[in-house]
Amino acid sequence: MSSAAIPPSILTFEQARHVVEQHAAGLRPPAKESIELLEAAGRVLAEPVMADRDFPPFPRATRDGYAVCSADLARLPAKLKVVGEIRAGAAQSSALQLQRGQTAAIMTGAPAPPGADAVVMVEYTAARGEIVEISRGVAAGENIVPTGAEARRGAQLLSPGIRLDHAAIAVAASAGKTHLEVYAKPRVAVLATGDEIVEPHVPPGPTQIRNSNSYSLAAHVRAAEGEPIILPIAPDEPNRLRELISEGLEADLLLLTGGVSMGKHDLVEEVLAELGAEFFFTGALIQPGRPTVFGRVARSAGEGIPATSTYFFGLPGNPVSTMVTFELFVRPVLEALSGMTPRKLVFLHAKLKSEIKTKTGLKRFLPAVLTGEFEQAEVELVPWQGSGDIAATARANCYIVIPPDRERIPAGEWIAVLLP
Ligand code: AMP
Ligand code: MG
Asked: At 337, which helix (H) or strand (E)?
């Protein structure tokens, strides 16, 4: 085997991220399925949700108090005659047409009666028998949401491609949806490679390492509502590796870990090249995660079926590298395969607690602890032994982002932080 088929292409972080985003944008949405409303929480919406009625369907009181004609309160205190009480759910009966000088007690969520253009909060009133004395004026429209002000019947409330969070589920419930069309979960094959790697249930030999990457990736995939498929560990031997990679390419996305560095037994790229892979990059100027590989392999389609391809990522085997590169590169592709519009990376800023010294040339994403809140957010690196130090990462709750041109960042500087 020769590695001549793989032109090395090492990109900056921003270039690599851009390449991934471009490919993600070109992916077709997956199949749809209809599921019960609550089951759809966390899934990606595949249909538009429309308002089936005006929101609100009647002029809705937003306070407990008295429905009034605001002009009756021009002089204060005002005395109005109480002609009724309107509870939430009360029929919008025209019997309660307010005349000037009249008022009706009204509850939050009840329909304001014709003739009323505002609600005075109960706190500014004193009822004496049939008369209520009002001590504060209101502007027309105050404490009433007009019919259709939130959405007109037929308006689109939710768009396909959003992840259904609690607020979106609430909107769908309000629009009378008991079921929602969502996109099918993408199947993501996870393939760990390495002669030294054993599964967690196997007692490891003195120089063997337990497979943690398959599990961190599968957990990531599951949290992103994908369906992980953990394949058996591939040895650093081309035949079995080829078999398992071929199996993984049957899924919607293949995530490999290990075997992408410069070592003599790092065979992942060669085997992928043999299988006809197209490589978009074979490294990014980041730490951890420099040897990350991104590409795709055309999938043989049956006659008359348009050819498709499966994207793959070859992630470095170091466990922290695997986690970071999932965040930086895999997530947008996985989101697009889920039918979602991929989210942009969002960086917070926090004050650095203690000085960082490093080398220039790589953009760094280093495990760190963020504490404090509001204007007091502070961050500091977790002491670690490099990108194999999984225990350090478990103590961290974010990554400090260091630009490639910085050698020293003094304590007290506000720096970018990436939340996983
Ligand atoms: P590699 O990228 O194959 O050179 O591996 C880099 C480092 O990550 C080595 O120390 C491996 O033992 C370790 N490693 C590779 N794969 C895994 C895995 N699946 N789980 C835990 N550690 C791994
Ligand atoms: Mg290896």
From this structure: helix 331-337
Task: Give the CA distances from residue 116 to residues 62, 63, 74, 160, in Å, rounded to whole numbers and listed in that order.
Answer: 14, 14, 15, 39
Residue 253 forms beta bridges with which residues?
188, 311
- Give the Cα separation of 112 and 97 in Å (integer): 10
Helix (H, G, I), strand (E, B) or coil at 218: helix
According to DSSP, the β-strands at 102-106 and 78-86 are parallel
Instruction: Answer yes or no: is the C-beta of 234 below 6 A from any ligand 1 atom.
Output: no
Is 133 in contact with 124 (CB distance < 8 Å)? Answer: no
Q: Is the CB of 198 under 6 A from ligand 1?
A: no
Are the CB atoms for 196 and 204 separated by under 8 Å? no
Q: For the chain, what's the residue count? A: 420
93-137 pLDDT, tens digit each: 656 899 999 999 999 999 999 999 999 999 999 999 999 999 999
Q: Is the beta carbon of 257 within 6 A of some atom in ligand 1? A: yes
* Ligand 1 atom closest to residue 321's alpha carbon, by position in its atom list: 8
Q: Over the Cα atoms of the chain, what is R_g?
A: 30
Ligand 1 in reach of 12 Cβ (< 6 A) = no
